## 1
Amino acid sequence: MRPFTRSALRPYVCPSCRSGRLVGRRRFGSKPDQAPDVYDVVCVGGGPAGLGLLAALRASPLTSKLRVALIETQDLQKARAWSLDSQHFSNRVSSLTPSSVSFLKKIGAWEHLDTDRAQEYQEMQVWDGETDSRITFDWSADTSPFENLPTVATMTENANLVRGLLSRIAASGDENISIFSNTTVSSIENGTDHPDGPDLSAWPVLSLAPNGTAQSQLPTRIAARLLVGADGINSPVRRFADIATEGWDYNRHGVVATLSLADPDQVSFPIGTRTAYQRFLPSLGGPVALLPLPNNHATLVWSTTVENAAYLKSLSPKAFIAMVNAAFRLSMTDLKYMMRMERPANSASDYEDLHESELTWRLQHTPQASQVPPMVNGVQEGSVASFPLRFRHASTYISPRVALVGDAAHVIHPLAGQGLNLGMGDVASLSKTIEYAVDHGMDIGDILSLEKYTAERWAVNAKIGGVCDMLHKLYNVPGHGPVAWGRSLGLEIIDRLPFVKGFLMKNAEG
Amino acid sequence: MTNLRPTIRKATSLLRHLNSPHRAHSTSVSADELSHFSSLANSWWDPMGPSRVLHLMNPLRHDFIASCLFDSLPPPRASAPETSTPVNNLRYLDVGCGGGIFAESLARTIPTNANSPSQTVTQAASITAIDPTSALIKIARDHARMDPKVEAHLRDGKFTYKNCTLEDIVASQRETPEDEKFDIVTLFEVLEHVDSNAASSPLAFLTNCLRVLRPGGWLVGSTIARTFPSFLVNQVIAEAPWPIGVVPRGTHEWSKFVNPDELYAWAQEGLMRSQDGASLRAGGDALQGMRWKCSGVMYFPGIGWKLVPGSENWGNYFWAIRKGL
Ligand SMILES: Cc1cc2nc3c(=O)[nH]c(=O)nc-3n(C[C@H](O)[C@H](O)[C@H](O)COP(=O)(O)OP(=O)(O)OC[C@H]3O[C@@H](n4cnc5c(N)ncnc54)[C@H](O)[C@@H]3O)c2cc1C
Ligand SMILES: C[S@@+](CC[C@H](N)C(=O)[O-])C[C@H]1O[C@@H](n2cnc3c(N)ncnc32)[C@H](O)[C@@H]1O
């Protein structure tokens, strides 16, 4: 046999555990030859992708009998117990595309979400802050006014989704499933050949370490027929499988916040229709987006330079609100000015008014664009935060007995709100791949079973990630030069070409 | 993804000493075929190796068997315990199992614990897999150990590899009651490797397969038709040098390919012969309850194999014969 199967697998040891290793040994621990506990699927990572995969496997009659395990560093008990009142929202909110929602419905997870906290929107306003060229994503042209408008996406707090998935998994019973929460994967190595039993020398074997006060009867070593890396951007599983990634940091941060809105200026039609707004701000490093939440709330995602992000986070609530309102209304020049305004050292009350009054004054001198979001009038305490924006793409999603899903496989710019949806697409495809393999007696960890998954997902994800990256770059050239001119043409062309628009609106289901 | 990398036929002489087929009985085994397949042993399970085409076809075998069982299920044995929920209870024999691509995949569908309620589409309860090439049986056994579930079946006897000929199985079953024989006999990509000479013929080989099958059971196989398109595809294109070719040179001899109508005639003849008594020759009633199924499969580069009914004269096809009750 070609050495391929084994050479692709390299031991991964969590950096903090490395010091404790015996020197020069492939393994550490006391009972190396004791057979590990064998699972069909071991999923590292209990974020939306990992939990989504588990829920999908439990939902299908073909895969519900597989012996599965999930390992998550964080305390999932907190995620299960998560609860907020109807006027407060988590600041990590994702827009789920209709195909993600229908997948969640298919696996019986959607009904476990608190859908009163989720907000659909039917229209999207996107425009260029530099040239004002605009693209309106609404369906009213194709729909009669009496029909309900199709949903562009559904805003859902990640915490609501995660809690719903956990509850869906719990509803599937506790047979053949082990969830190790509060537990870190401390190393992944190849198993050994047990002369009187199976030869596990090409199987990944994980060593688990409880964090502080975790469960008592934790098996220390578990073997995986299929090891799934749903372990986020720094994926230990990806490192174990030695899968290369390409990528770069955007040197931008996404500033998020939960906001409350003044009453909408215009009554929407049909009643209840909600709109998402996104304005590209080339001179400030990226777009600002305001996405609707229930009860006249909204979530903010403002992609901007690291310095601007730090500036925004340091502002008082009033000044922060003024900046957000300005971001959708003022000219680039005005905005850049406001982004550099002095912030008095100690919170003198007149300093708050500085941004506010600056905005009021400048608004009087700014012609108003036809469609801007309602004014923001409140920011939820403690909800302003920022995340670094990065691009990563693994060279493949599979290796013998390994598959990557979600952010472990790809991280993209959030400007189209696609990151989590790509992860849901991965999970739908991988669970289908596993079903087919089980039904046909294939080994679910075998490359021959898994290659369908990477073939189905890699190019799709590369395309969507690429479009987002291209838009990011296009909308980072400030001024009115040829790029801006081309851009205005671009948005107008997009507006006229149903295909491109459809691609952006439906966010490419595949 | 589908980058096919057949290895050149090599090291044949080195491996020749590995071939020690049992020759206790008159045998259908051709020495040339044995040395050819021995040389492929090392790469048998390489997903990108010369057996990739077989690997890709394997899931369709499960689908085809499932369609046979859907048409007509072998009746439960008189000895079988009554169960309220459907369970896997069919006994399989895989003839010419090679490195175990099909046998291992079928073994994986056998439930580990007997009271597991779910029934799989192929309903396998046990499988015996035989091949005259000892190097391949060794590869098959070693590979099976790399899956704890399959390895457990090797130990509990639900899965057996035997380095023997079909004739050995026939001999060992001489005293076996009809009802205790195999429910399903599989013969994937083997018939085209059987010699036609004084001692051996595809007809005799098929007859033996039918002898070890119980009434109501299915003999299921796949092979290649001996037609002009198949000549072009299998001899000229498939065995062409890399990167066009998908199977190693010397894998097929076109003259050994079998057409569906020939096979159908052999099946009828074989059914009658397999039921010949010691003194009495079986006649047309041996064909009662017989069924014949046939479906072409085609390989589409980049997509894989697809069942394409009506394409059986074009090359690869699945066929099945049900032995009447
Ligand atoms: C500002 C911003 C806005 C976004 N907006 C959107 C949006 O609108 N729509 C959208 O679709 N997406 C959006 N995204 C992207 C989305 O949040 C991510 O794609 C998604 O959370 C990824 O889910 P995941 O399950 O793949 O990974 P994660 O959520 O990162 O989960 C990985 C899990 O693995 C665990 N883990 C890691 N290592 C180990 C270990 N060794 N042992 C055990 N456990 C481990 C971690 O604790 C973590 O829980 C946005 C991202 C950002 C930064
Ligand atoms: C192309 S391989 C097919 C292997 C396996 N059935 C599969 O499809 O994966 C053909 C196999 O037939 C075996 N074979 C050749 N002549 C045979 C014979 N007369 N009786 C039984 N098996 C034979 C060879 O050893 C070889 O393993």
## 2
Amino acid sequence: MADGQTNGKTPKLDKLDKGPWPSFVKEIKRAAEKNPMSKDLLGQLELSYEDKIGHWKHGGIVGVLGYGGGVIGRYSDVPEKFPNVAHFHTIRVNMPAGWFYTSDALRTLCDIWEKHGSGLTNMHGSTGDIVFLGTRTEQLEPIFSELTKEGFDLGGSGSDVRTPSACVGPARCEWACYDTLKLCYDLTMEYQDELHRPAFPYKFKFKCSGCPNDCVASVARSDMSIIGTWKDDIQVDQAAVKEYEDKGLNIQRDVCGNCPSKCMDWDGKTLEIDNRLCVRCMHCINAMPKALRPGKERGACLLLGSKAPIVEGAQLSSVLVPFMKMEPPYQELKDLCEKIWDLWCEEGKARERVGEFIQRVGLGNFLEAIEVEPSPYMIAHPRDNPYIFYEDYFEEGDEEDEDEDGDE
Amino acid sequence: MAQIELAGKMFDIDEDGFIQDASDWDENVGAAIAPTEGVTEMTEEHWKVVNYIRDYYLEFGVAPMVRKLCKSTGFDMKKIYELFPSGPAKGACKIAGLPKPTGCV
Ligand code: HEM
Ligand code: HEM
Ligand code: SF4
Ligand code: SF4
């Protein structure tokens, strides 16, 4: 039998099947009833638990003609025991912005995948893509041609622009400060070459969140985090605030008390917000959605540099541009990205994320090279940090600084 | 390990078809690998890329970064993919007899 030395028994995996939580084991077992790849996958995983070692080889270079990314090669190191997972390549399929599908589209995807692969999917991977788990090299071209015939395309992998992703934004969410779906689609189309033909030192991810709730976790998972924000004052409906109080919300304690910049006050009649100090955290708006909403002058804050811990430690993005309007054709954003890429591609080391690159060359040098003025918004605690040296202070005939509002 | 005959010599190859012993490579071997990567005929332009990659590898022990490859050969990415439809890493490096570039997620 194909399932090697475990004889189809998987006592260790079975333990994961017990207990209150859903388990991937249950899903793979279900798939194994129909598909021998899934069956061998269980067997190999059981063996890995037995041996306390992974049985996948490192890396693999497979793909489809015309593209340098989109397929991640994977081979078993015990193919004689589990021949059905000797090849187990992953395919990334570019998801629609905001993950909106018709049920027809989902069926189409699953049909293609059951025909040519293990049938196992991951909806969705942490890049946001539709992830097809497990197929053989000779199936790649047929899958690719069937997908493209149905209007789908592969996503990014390797050292390229990864498939941009976006929160549902204005499609379902009243807090969206810009059209995340539109931007996501625009970036995907604009950067097709960069997406399919890896030419960077390492990966580059865009994630678009409509507001600082950041539902796609762009601040932690994308090199370029584009997070909706507003410039003017939070919109307040005082009567609706009062209603929250009447229904039992302790506004002073639970809303004002948890405001990180302590810039709110409630006297039982009027909610006052010192918007100059508000850091746009969304807490008060989340707490009283009927009474408060983001301001009217909306756009996005660009943050740069986050990454998971692979080569170096984990890092969050930090502010690069405090506020930018987000309207088609998004030229300002694109110009900035291209400047960053030019510099990073020229000076970055292989497998160095842009966040690591900035740490190596220093933020000051980086900003100078991409021609962005340093600003206090780039510092986590601008009023506390004494280590920033402003040349301006030492020049004769100091000019007035245009913008010292400390606003966002 | 699988074996394959290329230009009259036997080579060990890995699952992805990369030859294991780079020192046994010559241009005939490269030309024999080419069709497996969608390259029907090795023109002068193909050799320019392959030889550049090969020389770089022999000097530095790694494949050049793609951007460097473009700059040094004067070919842009579009041209590189026209020449090598499976791309510089999978196509051109394999034809140049380099070991498999380390995988990445
Ligand atoms: C020690 C072993 C491994 C390590 C350290 C590792 C590490 C990682 C990391 C850091 C990521 C990126 C996550 C992110 O997007 O932030 C990733 C993604 C991924 N890994 Fe692994 N991995 C390992 C083994 C495997 C194995 C054995 C498989 C499959 C058989 C696998 C399949 C994948 C896939 C498909 C993705 C992409 C998922 C997505 O697109 O969201 N990995 N891995
Ligand atoms: C192994 C030896 C030492 C260690 C580990 C050490 C560590 C530190 C640390 C962690 C700080 C705080 C820096 C910050 O908040 O950013 C500091 C500040 C300071 N250290 Fe040391 N230090 C050492 C030796 C010395 C010596 C020998 C001197 C003086 C001769 C000294 C003078 C100072 C001064 C003046 C500050 C305050 C700097 C400022 O706030 O601007 N330190 N030190
Ligand atoms: S990030 Fe903001 S705009 Fe986007 S879905 Fe979440 S709450 Fe709504
Ligand atoms: S958004 Fe956050 S910082 Fe701003 S007023 Fe509300 S709670 Fe305070």
## 3
Amino acid sequence: MYEHDVIVVGAGGAGLRAAIAAHEAGADTALVTKLHPVRSHTGAAEGGINAALQEGDDWELHAYDTMKGSDYLGDAPAVETLAQDSPEDTMRLEHWGMPFSREEDGRVSQRPFGGLSYPRTTYAGAETGHHLLHVMYEQVVKRGIQVYDEWYVMNLATTDEPDPNDRTCHGVVAYDVQSGQIEGFKANDGVILATGGPGQAFDHTTNAVSCTGDGHAIAYRAGVPLEDMEFIQFHPTSLPSTGVLISEGVRGEGGILYNEKGERFMFEYGYANNDGELASRDVVSRAELTEVNEGRGVNDEYVYLDMRHLGEERILDRLENILHLAEDFEGVDGLVEPMPVKPGQHYAMGGIETDENGQTNIDGLYAAGECACVSVHGGNRLGGNALPELIVFGKRAGRHAAGEDLGDAQIETGYGEDVEVETDADLPVTPGEVGIEPADDGVAADGGVTADAEGLLERTVERERERVDRLMDKDDGIQHAEIRQKLQKAMTDYVNVFRTEEGIKKALKVIRECREEYQHVYVDDPSRTFNTDLQQTYETRNLIDVAETIALGALVRNEFRGAHWRKERQERDDENWLKHTLISWNGGKPDIFYRPVILEGEEKTYEPKVRSY
Amino acid sequence: MSTQQQEPETQEAPQDPEMKGAESPVDERERESGVVDQTSADDADLEGETVHLKVFRYDPEVEAKQEPRFDDFHVPFTKGMTVLDAVMYARDEYDSSLTFRHSCRQAVCGSDAFFVNGKQRLGCKTQISELEQPVRIEPLPHQEVVKDLVVDMEHFYDQMHAVEPYFQNEDTPDASALEEQRQSRENREKIKMSTRCIWCASCVSSCNIAAGDNQYLGPAAINKAYRFAMDDREPEEVKEHRLRIIEQEHGVWRCQTQFSCTEVCPKDIPLTEHIQALKREAVKKNLKFW
Ligand SMILES: Cc1cc2nc3c(=O)[nH]c(=O)nc-3n(C[C@H](O)[C@H](O)[C@H](O)COP(=O)(O)OP(=O)(O)OC[C@H]3O[C@@H](n4cnc5c(N)ncnc54)[C@H](O)[C@@H]3O)c2cc1C
Ligand code: SF4
Ligand code: FES
């Protein structure tokens, strides 16, 4: 068994920042991560980091923009913390050597981004995330923080009091991918989950193969509610075969979208008569899918994004990287052919419910980064607001876990008695665990001897060993890839940019089937060495749980807010829905409940306004 | 698209499987690159066809795989298919034990450098249609093979860490005053390419010197040293300290400017140029030659 004060699960931007903060606060800190840190998906971010750095800009403007962008589903204490802390934390990256783009006078450059009232997106070329990730990993190396890389975290070691709010997390159980060895990691002060997004719940996504919602699922099964899971951002221009993102820049420079018949559909079919291709991400995504659904898509799948008319010179000058992306990842020469594009899952606004100190309802358990929901993004995330979330809330979670006093949190967490419970959701099937066995519950049944952290860890390790043996001993049944593909397809077919009650119900039925099939899952690869078959089988289980919460949230929220569009009610309903959707695992029988959004900031209240972009 | 099932055929690998944690085939390095000059219009010829892959297999724990071998897979071609897409398809549809690292699918995580038709390439950044068939996919040469296409990266990481790969300036302005260290555009431009490294290890794998001298820092680590040594934000004493690290016995002077690293780098980093620039700096500083 390994032992540290603070264990950080995941080494993307959020995890690395949390580890540095906990280490600086004096805690013996370790990172446990299934990928080597520099492989994390933070490296894919291109655009930049929002921070009110310049004179003339102000954190309050950043907070205002963020709240408006969230469609009034962000919690003001979280939104204001983000805007207040981001400038200093962004500057700290510069002091750690981040190669930001520069002005003539040597200061860091900032640029405008959609939804921002001031050009405050701080960037390093078109590779901001890559540099942020590498700079923070460098600081981890400098400090000698221990990294267990290619260790897959299978579960949390959490006590099993009946009320999840009384539980304590004492560590994690992980296996060394290279050797197959399963070990407990005891955390004396806290565990911080920083496992990134759940994009692999969809079959077409800009997210990496590693974005499987592991942290979401293990926290959920241990008794932490998942919040606002229905809010998923889709990006309108991703390449069909890989999901690689083609930036807004192409449309910004004058690129046009057309359908199979060669029609410029944004205008011809009236999706956006004024803005055309420059309409907001969700409007363009829905327009593209409507074209495909009505039979005007190319190969019944995508539309074309054409930039040829801009001319070779202009393309080479401003959009050269796009040419490389189309060539390398789609085999298309953007100078001679139009590029195929379609909407792809891009970002999850929801996640593990935390307060502004990163704390969950379970003692000793924290979350930060894309896997967490503080909530700053509410119904929709503004471009450039995820990276500051990583550094601001990663830092806070690290400090708090290491014992620093950050003041009382204003955001409440946990499934308590005073919450509004959803009692008449019309569910087509029962969600949750199939034939609940105690061993499948997220918490260790330990007969009340919860005080002994080591014993708890040993029992949790034992349970995971048994699970692995079960999966590996079985010689036939169904393989994870088949279940995963079915799940991903259902999510993309029915819980995509268009959502109807009927479709979401279909998705829930398929998810139920996936759960049932998963009862028969087996791992074919007999080897303990680098068994990715085993790892993916674990991940698929997590994806099922996460996908179900997305579909449940989408079903009950009968309104159009932020990125969540419902056919039955195509407008925002502030009277009934200024509240977060939360789903509690509840021992395998999920409950849906609500908590009002907090619109009261430090000094002002944010009044909901029409979102008109 | 046809989804015809194709069981992998097994075939002996031609190299010596003696050593524990077999070395991947070095002889292949000498082979010509399998790239044929095709334009994407030729994709149409492949549409509806299958792609023939020959994939290196090895697992020290599984009896049938202890002897390294090549398995054949026939994967239905789709437009835009990359080498990574093809091996993922083979794994998901035919053999779930086929093992390789991958994550981002967009050339930023550096996980999936393989030896494809005799050249180090990122699987996700290589279009199948540009390769001669059968497409031969092997682990990176000169690295210990853990299983199938997975090599042990520890030595690579050790070399990267050996150059103190982190910014060093004890005298930064106060962050709470929101004041940055100034850096000129020219200086940023100078280090720009060097900061693009994704730690894929293609360069080291292609380097003859690294193959012969296990302690040689290698192009990626030296490039990392360049990235900091040339950054004007670090003080002069730190720069000197950095030059001492790279001019040691197994440092820059080992490089014989063969350009193989520069040729394979998927991020187009002018590695050889950077190594040469550091040599010049070391000479300027009057540091000793090896
Ligand atoms: C293409 C793209 C472009 C983007 N551009 C921008 C932008 O310009 N600006 C912006 O603000 N945001 C952007 N975003 C969003 C932003 O990049 C992500 O939200 C953010 O990087 C997520 O960081 P993270 O640290 O939470 O997770 P990640 O970087 O995904 O890291 C997750 C970590 O968790 C580990 N992990 C996961 N599961 C386990 C497990 N079971 N056991 C052990 N370890 C585990 C992984 O190894 C990894 O280290 C973009 C996103 C994408 C996909
Ligand atoms: S220098 Fe290029 S080839 Fe070498 S590790 Fe970095 S990205 Fe890969
Ligand atoms: S999968 Fe990340 S570089 Fe290829």
